[in-house]
Amino acid sequence: MGSNQIRVLMTKPGIDGHWRGGIVVSRALRDAGMELIFGGFQNVEQIVESAIQEDVDVIGLSIHSGAHFAYTQQIIDLLKKKGVLDKFLILVGGVIPAKDFSQLKEMGVANVYGPGTMVNSIVQFIQQNVQK
Amino acid sequence: MYDREYLEQIKKRKEEWESKFQNAKERDAKFVTDSEIPIKRIYTPLDVKSDFLENVNFPGEPPYTRGVYPTMYRGRFWTMRLFSGHGTPEETNLRWKYLYENGETGFSAAVDALTFNGIDPTNKDGAPEVGTSGVPLYCIDSLYALTEDIPIDKISVALVVEPFTCAPVCSMYFNMARARGYDIKQLIGTTQNDILTMTVGYIPYKNCPPNHLLRLACDFIEWTVPQKNVPRWHPINFTGYNYREGGIDAIQELGFVFASACSHIDNLVERGWKVDDFVNRLAFHLAAHKDFFEEIAKYRAARRIWAKLMKDRYECKDPKSQEFRFHVQTAGSSLTAQNPKVNIIRTAIQGLEANLGGCQSLHTNSYDEAICLPSEEAALIALRTQQVIADETRIANTVDPLAGSYYVEWLTDEVEERVWKYIAKVEKVGSIDKALSTGWLYKEMRDAFHKRRRRIENREEIMLGVNKYEVPYDDVTDVFRTSKEAIEIEVNRINKLKERRDNAKLEKLLDKLRDVCEKEENVMPIMMEVTKEGATIGEVCDVYREIYGIWEPPLAI
Amino acid sequence: MRKDYDIDELVQKFKDHDKIALARLITIIENEPDKAVEIFKHFEDKNHESYIVGITGSPGVGKSTLTGAITQKLLDDGKRVGIISVDPTSPFSGGAFLGDRVRMTNITLHPNLFMRSLASRGSKGGLSRAVFDISLLYEAFGMDIILIETVGAGQSEFEIYNLAYTVVVVLVPGYGDAIQMQKAGIIEIGDLYDINKKDLGGEDIAVQVEMMLDDSIFQSGWRPPVSMTNAISGEGIDELIQNIFDHKEHVELSGELTTKKKNRFTYKIKSLIHHKVDKIVLKKVITLEEIEKIAVDTYESSKFKIYKSINDVFEDVNINITKKE
Fold first, then answer.
1. Checking CA distances to B451, which of A80, B267, B504, C87 falls within 20 to 30 Å?
2. What is the ipTM score, two decimals?
């Protein structure tokens, strides 16, 4: 404790109200020593602006609406436009069919987490992939 | 049931049996129910404390433990009602027809996130989600398209919308029915109208505060039933299903729904209605979760608790007011994206629970539930699941077949006792809208989320494929995708409506709505006019937001 | 994934009003306080001053929503606003849940707003050590108003007194806060009191606050006003903001502002000195392990030897600190 904690933005693009996954992962990340900035419902521009102002290491998108391609693409495009895409580790979690994982990764998502994910795997992935 | 002497004999024999087999090895497991009620190795007549005539009795008579109707499924099977909707109303209409042709006996509209939250597709924040998780019902034209060639006068239609959008969507439905020539006083159906679903089950997006939601819910009940505008309608389903999905247990589920029901009844009684004027039309929506016997005991206990509540607390005069009717949905959160075909088995067992428990209506999940919206094939299997139970198993030969099982009767009593305690706990916080606005319910949900997660990580709760016999996600099953054109189609639908309607007249009506909202009068009469004139769901809910404010739920992490 | 940076480049962009650069500089200062010297040397010519308001109160009183409502009005008035929201770091995990930004979603995109959520990171006063540094950065960035929002628990209320010029203490009905306030001495640090969630019945607590104020002595002649707000509906926000500006005017006219500014810097300087001395002592006089050993020895033999044990250590120490000629 003291300095250099990993900072994560947990947010939901859109309006679909499934929040159990986001809440459970938020607590797990905090219990693992990270600083969890809770964004709640945010649109694409708000997500990017929050990530920039909070200078987070990880952007966690919680998506259960079926619209994961649309939102993720829009967010990545805007991050690219602002010149900050390479500054964030982008993770997507929620009701995402396994068939869609590779396409999301090609867009620039570092990892995708579907239903039944053990939260510790998310913690470990972040710890291994964020250099501080 | 047995005389004292005979019970003594049984007791003696039981003690002998226990001591004889005290060293018999048992598995290294915790023998508890899902809600952690400790379970013994064996149950005997000694465990049945409930007096048969007083507490179990016969079906069709209070306390209704054995069922609300004297004949139950011998008279008529439960309604086979698959919750469905996707893409556009036209696509959903085709799916509904498909299921109807295959033997479905009731309809249920699963709406999309914009419909739940009162947002038009022209609002760009929600636009990517048009039709992705349910059917968009944004205006009266949508209701026409949804019900094209569907015999809504003969078949019960469930509109699963919550208090925030109940009035606009249902009034669109009733207006559409009238325009088609139906007498709405004869319409049968249900509106979920459940205050806890879009507050704790799902987090609402820009909805109004809970005290207004409670009033809006009661407005709808009042207008349909005691004011006799749609007297055969079920204006509310107190819904425990969505909170079970978060991880609360069977006891909490009943505690939540009963506390919620009492708050609504209190509100209507305050308006001057007598309980017997409306209570009979209030219904419930419960989950069928993983613990087979606990769920069945839960349904029986629920009937008994409701009967007692109506008699003792509300002093109803009509025994029909003590009838507890419920719809069941099998537990989505028990299904896996790994080995999804195993979900068919889970759903079948859970469906059986609901039927052995005497539900009036049942939705069985599709096996691709954890991956996408139901494909046609998966929906058909879900429907056939219910039909196998009805047509092939003969469990419906008799009413409440598990009655008399020492275990089931004991467990029913045990669940009942615990639920009474939990209802008291919830009610100590205040009425249900207080339990929401103070954040108390969110804390209960939060604790449940984390408890469930721990149980799965510790393997106290097994999910095959996830924490036992682990396999990767299935990527072979077809992923059902909703139409990408849905956004454009819905935006065009609304634009055409806006061109057609009398915008000046609508503005005046919306002003009247504002007035009604400010005065906190029943919104339904003006809502019927407003939606008939072509108001969209976003336009109506923006008025709510303007007058009642936007509520930020006190989330707990 | 490493984030590389070049301070000169960042400073350049910062001076061009780039929020990305501001955010990065905040991160550097938060994680590497020693870099502050290098960063600040670029701003030595900057003397823009912001007006700093502290907002404190128990958890659950709606501070974030209130801060958001105040900010909205300030932005509407054309002001540039910088927010610093501090939440406590868990002493067990070292992590933190920073839940203030979620209450301010609808103002996130305003061009004149910058907001940063901080965890206290075990700082002694409960507020992050970085708050002062970030407030300087905000001043260099040209903010008109800085809002520092913090949980009033432990000592952080007192710290806010040393960081802000106007302190708003937020209460809610039904909390029993008035009694707690009196016990904790908070009554002395509040320049304004606000009773939020007034729809739950604020009159009683307003009366209690007024009664306590009646019993107090106000050296500067400013009796804290008590406002009532409903941050969600916006009721009362205008009055609260007016009170803030009234207080600002009062401290400016009375000269008290100068005292407060001096206090703000003195407090920070003292804490920097403490920090330096701490480091030296831990390096030259006694290590953490030795401290722990003394603690164990003391309570195992006699806990009443505690003063003697430390005095003995320092008896053996020759402290000879001289300034360079």
1. C87
2. 0.94
